[in-house]
Amino acid sequence: MKYVIMADGEGKRWHNYLGLPKHLVEIGGEPIIGRTVRLLKENGVTDIIITASDERYNFADRQPQSDRDCEIDRFDEKVIEGYNEICYLYGDVYYSEDAIKMIINTPTDDCLFFGSTAEIFAIKIMDIPFFMEHKHRVKKLFMEGEIDRCIGWEVYRSMHNIPFNQHIITDRYKKILDGTDDIDYPEDYERFKQKVERLSGMNTKLKVSLIVPCYNEQDRVTKALDSIPVRDDLEIIAVNDGSTDDTLMTLVMYKEDHPERNMRIIDVQPNQGLGNAKNVGYDNAKAEYVNQLDADDWLYTDKYNKVVDQLDGTDIVYMNLVKNDGSIFDITPESQRGLCSGCARFIRREFLGDTRCPKVQGGEDWFLNEALQPKPHTDKFTRINAYHYNFPREGSLYDKILKGEIRNEE
């Protein structure tokens, strides 16, 4: 398969920021397009071409784009002559390692698009005539003034008979929601560069990975996310645990609407339970400490900030819980042994180690607590009322357990 990295656009939105084409600016000490080529080669790809007229694009074989009537011509047919399988990648995308592996290893019978809900990152094509048929249809409609633009989304809509004025994702689409993103404007670059440097430890060290497990919480999770402070040293890991409602879309739209938040979304399918969702969060945490926020709870933002500011290398740091009736679960050395909610504690990731929640129907934090307590560790009790614990909420998992409707079983 031939991999074509498209990088011969006019860059009108980029305005020659920093005196460089956007594909050549560095993130993490490496040009964006150079990173793409490196990741492809590290995953066994040898046939790579960059469509660019600029001689500085010397990271792989280079060939200028032949046609420039409109934007759809980036899918250049002359570049792929003699090939039966092709993969187009966008040159202004900062791909994660997992995204490149997904693009390379995911099979398709005709065409498969990869991207977020709003942006296409790559198109893998096994049936080139089928793809080009729809490319030419889209170009013809655009040149005749029937449609306002002609980019990859129009080809996708043409393939699926979707109205060109509607944004609907059906089949032939694989979502990449791991932080991979494209760079259109200078402000996109500066924001994304800071985010990558923060995650890689080149900038402010991450102090807290806040895990937000979600199952059918489309109506409540926004309130929880809004209560999280915006800090350079805090990341949000939202784990969608096989929701059957619009929780995943709610999370995706929230992330897109709040670029100031360092947020990752992990989609677990099918539903595997709260304990597993928390474990997924623990496995993906990058910060010094892990904490969790249930999607139907919320934080007292200013007070939570004060707790985070007090994290000092202690193995487990506690904050108090505020219940629905206004009463306080005051967590002290004496009370913490009976603590069931893991939301009240920050656990140093190094101390957590490989300890994980069991797969039980509720009470998974209790078992985790019991597993951690025998290990030699240090505790800190802030006594700060920073977490609103929506307990017991009618119809919640714990409410059903209290009523005997669900048994705790492995």
CATH class placement of the largest domain: Alpha Beta
Assign the CATH superfamily of the largest domain: Spore Coat Polysaccharide Biosynthesis Protein SpsA, Chain A
Mean pLDDT: 88
Query: Helix count, per DSSP?
Result: 12
SSE class? alpha/beta
Instruction: Write down the Rg.
Output: 24 Å
Please tell me the CATH architecture of the largest domain by its name. Answer: Alpha-Beta Complex
The global form is elongated
Number of domains: 2
Strand content: 15-25%
Low-confidence stretches: 397-410
Number of strands: 20
Task: Write structural notes for this entry.
- This protein has 410 residues and is of the alpha/beta class.
- The chain has 2 domains: 181 residues, Spore Coat Polysaccharide Biosynthesis Protein SpsA, Chain A; 199 residues, Spore Coat Polysaccharide Biosynthesis Protein SpsA, Chain A (Alpha-Beta Complex).
- Helix content is 28%, strand content 22%.
- The protein has 12 helices and 20 strands.
- Helix 3 packs across helix 4.
- The two termini are 46 Å apart.
- The C terminus is likely disordered.
Briefly summarize what is shown.
The protein has helices spanning 32-42, 97-105, 128-143, 152-159, 186-199, 221-226, 247-257, 274-284, 301-309, 349-352, 364-372, 397-402; strands at residues 2-6, 26-27, 30-31, 48-51, 61-62, 86-90, 93-94, 111-115, 120-125, 173-175, 181-182, 208-214, 234-241, 263-268, 289-292, 298-299, 316-323, 328-329, 345-348, 379-389. It has 410 residues and is of the alpha/beta class. The longest helix is centred in the first third of the chain and has 16 residues, at 128-143.
